[in-house]
Design brief:
By secondary structure, this protein is an all-alpha fold. It has one domain. α1 packs across α2.
């Protein structure tokens, strides 16, 4: 896989990697892992809410009054 970054993105990644004493690749790979984990968690929560909200719609409507 090839990752193409703008000059500004590459500079920011290089700076972050240097500050952390890590390679640019390590920092980028961690960012990808965190992105996937965050999205997966959000999709799970959305699925649970989609399933549960209709069940409680009447009660929620009453509380909103």
């Amino acid at each position: 896989m090839t990752l193409r970054l703008t000059d500004a993105e590459a500079d920011a990644l290089r700076t972050r990697a240097e500050l952390e004493g890590r390679s640019m690749q390590d920092v980028a790979r961690q960012a990808v892992r965190e992105y996937i984990e965050q999205r997966s968690r959000a999709e799970l929560i959305d699925g649970v809410l989609d399933a549960a909200l209709p069940r409680y719609a009447e009660a929620l409507a009453r509380l909103a009054k």
